[in-house]
Amino acid sequence: MTQNDTPEREEPLPGGPREGSSRVILRPISGRDQDEFLELVRASVDLHHPWMPLPGTPQEFRAYLERFEDPEAAEGLLVCTRDTGAIVGNININSIIRGRFQCGSLAYAAFAPTAGQGYISEGIRLVLRHAFEVLRLHRLEANIQPGNHASLRLVQRHGFRREGYSPDLLFIDGAWRGHERWAITAPSQGSGDPHPTLPAR
């Protein structure tokens, strides 16, 4: 798709930054994003390898979208510039578990044409607000390979704490890779009622 298709895309998530303080918005990924997304993935192969495998073909993209058909299980979000709507990265909240856990797993990637400009950091800030205030999660986790120093610095800036190391955690780039486990929990003061799946006691 081209920039002319932007008005037809999904609307930004509600509850965005107040007074336009962020240069980016979040919106759900959709089938209309296929061409722009795949072009950005191709341009970002060197940036993402070996940390983040993303779909590189239309078939892989369609399978990728299927992961987010149930928003109670996962959310696929795009980070887009506020002024043009161009995609600058993606952030997923995967493996959402309710009940007593109320937790999701965070995955994110910048795209090479705009990497290093702070867009993903701003997107993470919006995702934390969305996860804790809208989805009413209690906890977000991020599993990061020890050599991915940029990603480690990113989560530290946003208040994630290191909880340990899991050997052979995820199958990436043809092998089982160990990951550091980082997590953040919702502010203790909260912002409303807990999710209805949280037990009363």
Largest sheet: 7 strands, mixed
How far is it from the N-terminal to the C-terminal residue, by CA?
A: 49 Å
- How are strands sequenced across the largest beta sheet? 1-2-3-4-5-7-6
Number of helices: 5
The CATH level-2 architecture is identified as: 3-Layer(aba) Sandwich
Over all CA atoms, what is the radius of gyration?
17 Å
Task: Determine the structural class based on helices, strands and strand pairing.
Answer: alpha+beta
Q: So, the CATH homologous superfamily? A: Gcn5-related N-acetyltransferase (GNAT)
CATH topology, what is it called? Answer: Aminopeptidase
The CATH class, by name, is: Alpha Beta
Number of domains: 1
Order of helices and strands: EHHHEEEHEHEE
Portion in helices: 10-25%
| Cα shape | globular
The average pLDDT value, as a whole number, equals 90
In the predicted model, the low-confidence regions spanning at least 5 consecutive residues are 1-9, 15-19
